[in-house]
Specification:
Rossmann fold, seven-stranded mixed beta sheet, two-stranded antiparallel sheet, alpha/beta, about 325 residues
């Protein structure tokens, strides 16, 4: 599958937007939490899981998805939401706990739902996989060509929901794709200490589905295998597992002491920054002008800055609104 310059540009701008969004969230989340870290304090209270370094997984498959395709995301959802086209203003307001958010500020960052683009967060550790399989079943019964995608971390592949869902998806030949983002750690446990196989695409044969593996966090390779998986699903050829070797530049959550990681690990991983490498490839291999790339970056920055301004300027929900919603 050959990628076009237009698709490359979309992927680069989307990945850049995700990275800038997460960088801004690092700053916003830190407000009011120091000098002694307090998870419940500050502008954005609660736990926060960021996807800095994992952008190719989201952009590489989302470019093949339509508005009516379904995406289920886990507790690290911002990159998936942005790539799927979730309203950025409402998403940011939701994370800030504001009335203008996707769920009127009641769900927060781990419970983002946008029915306009068929996006949802299933919560923690594989909880969204059965939801996506249910959506795939509904699409098949309604004779739609929609595809359902569930994103998970590699740790969730050891949960019962992973195996039960894949069994049913294969048995019913559903248009279902599971994307395993292997960022090497389940919270603080290295994958090698929790999983008996080197990669979860190898589990595909146990269920009679197609398996793909993407090395080195490569966005173009992710584009290629995702395109094949989505096409197979739309054509009635059944489910697929895609595992992508990706990098988590930040801790499991903001405030994570990361004592389980070697201090040089993140430095080495950042040398393989997928956004930097893709930018270089756009220029060297695809003859895309640097001025065009700069324009993409400027658009991304503008969109993200506007979303954060919208969230900050929005009002918090009134206490009585919670009761009013119960009787609407």
């Amino acid at each position: 599958m050959t990628i076009s310059n237009e698709e490359l540009n979309w992927m680069y701008e989307t990945m850049y937007k995700i990275r800038y969004y997460e960088d801004k969230m690092v700053e916003a989340y830190a407000e009011g939490k120091n000098p002694v870290f307090n998870i419940g304090a500050g502008t954005v209270p609660g736990e926060m899981h960021l996807a800095t370094g994992q952008e190719p997984a989201a952009a590489g498959i989302s470019i093949h998805l339509k508005k009516d395709d379904i995406v289920s995301s886990p507790h690290r959802p911002h990159h998936h939401a942005i790539a799927k086209g979730v309203n950025l203003n409402k998403m940011t307001a939701e994370i800030f706990g504001k009335e203008t958010g996707l769920g009127k500020g009641k769900g927060g960052h781990m419970h983002l739902f946008d029915p306009e683009v068929h996006f949802s967060c299933g919560g923690i550790v594989g909880a969204g996989i059965p939801h996506a399989v249910g959506a795939a079943l509904a699409a098949k019964k309604k004779n739609k060509d929609s595809v359902a995608v569930a994103f998970i971390g590699e740790g969730a592949a050891n949960q019962g929901a992973f195996h039960e869902s894949l069994n049913l998806a294969a048995l019913w030949n559903l248009p279902f794709i599971i994307v395993v983002e292997n960022n090497k750690y389940g919270i603080s446990v290295p994958k090698s200490h929790s999983t008996s196989i080197p990669s979860n695409d190898l589990r595909a044969s146990a269920y009679g589905v197609k398996g793909y593996y993407v090395k080195d966090n490569d966005p173009i390779a992710m584009y290629e295998v995702s395109g094949e998986a989505v096409e197979r699903a739309r054509n009635g050829e059944g489910p697929s597992i895609i595992e992508i070797e990706t990098y988590r530049y930040l801790g499991h959550f903001q405030g994570d002491a990361e004592v389980y990681r070697d201090e040089n690990e993140v430095t080495e991983l950042r040398e393989k920054d997928p956004i930097k490498l893709l930018r270089e490839k756009l220029i060297s291999d695809y003859n895309i002008e640097e001025s065009e790339i700069t324009a993409m970056e400027s658009r991304a920055i503008k969109d993200v800055d506007h979303a954060y301004a919208f969230a900050r300027e929005s009002d918090y929900p009134k206490p009585e609104a919670a009761l009013e919603d119960l009787f609407d």
